[in-house]
Backbone:
């Protein structure tokens, strides 16, 4: 009695255990969607992105919108959407407005490598209204809480964080420094704690953004503490020479030190004659 063995068709055996190209593409799309959504959620949280404060009344938003359209819309658009002359402000948050307008950098007087600090053109109430309006357009970094601005943190820890993250541009003493293409890192001497904190979370000009994953709110408070302590103590080693580092010190020694040696030599020679 012969036994028959049935074999599956060749086409069927090839397909067994294989995924179709459409299934692989779908899995990749789902993975990318999940990863992108998780990253966006984490970024929004760590950047301290918050909508406008609840205390911001509709009247403040309307007043801020009128101020914006009268003074800022030429470059940034009537609805803060941006133009060819200025970037969109949707999502920059109230902190960016408080920093830029509160330091006089905005409105900008003219195009250049970067906005220059100048006398403030608005009252604090008007600045708050502008910040509330821009903050109402989309979630963004909000004005920091007062508890992080008291300059009463750990100065030693703040100095370490500053040396690691900020000193390469702002100088170890916070005196500022030159960058490329005519840009520069400004001096931090005399800058208010609020503006220092806002600069860290908004990244104005060439400055990177230090969100709460990079430097925690407590760490930012410590940096402010270190800077304000340094302002108060001054230069314990004598004349600071602008705190510009070894170049300024070497130039001082070369001009005045060497000049004094030459003058003393001439005086001794004349005395002996």
Residues:
């Amino acid at each position: 009695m012969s036994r028959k063995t049935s074999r599956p068709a060749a086409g069927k055996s090839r397909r067994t255990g294989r995924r179709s190209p459409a299934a692989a593409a779908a899995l990749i799309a789902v993975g990318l969607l999940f990863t992108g959504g998780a990253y966006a959620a984490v970024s929004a949280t760590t950047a301290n992105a918050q909508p406008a404060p609840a205390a911001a009344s509709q009247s403040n938003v309307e007043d801020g919108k009128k101020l914006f359209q009268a003074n800022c819309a030429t470059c940034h658009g009537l609805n803060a959407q941006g133009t060819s002359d200025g970037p969109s402000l949707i999502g920059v948050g109230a902190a960016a407005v408080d920093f830029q307008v509160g330091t006089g950098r905005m409105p900008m007087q003219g195009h250049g490598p970067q906005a220059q600090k100048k006398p403030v053109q608005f009252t604090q109430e008007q600045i708050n209204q502008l910040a509330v309006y821009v903050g109402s357009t989309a979630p963004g970094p909000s004005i920091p809480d007062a508890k992080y601005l008291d300059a009463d943190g750990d100065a030693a820890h703040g100095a370490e964080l500053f040396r690691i993250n900020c000193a390469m541009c702002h100088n170890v003493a916070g005196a500022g420094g030159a960058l490329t293409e005519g840009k520069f890192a400004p001096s931090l001497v005399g800058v208010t704690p609020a503006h220092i904190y806002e600069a860290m979370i908004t990244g104005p000009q060439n400055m990177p953004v230090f969100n709460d994953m990079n430097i925690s709110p407590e760490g930012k408070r410590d940096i402010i503490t270190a800077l304000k302590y340094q302002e108060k103590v001054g230069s314990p080693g004598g004349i600071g020479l602008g705190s510009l580092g070894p170049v300024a010190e070497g130039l001082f020694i070369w001009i005045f030190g060497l000049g004094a040696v030459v003058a003393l030599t001439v005086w001794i020679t004349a005395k002996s004659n």
The first helix runs from residue 10 to 15.
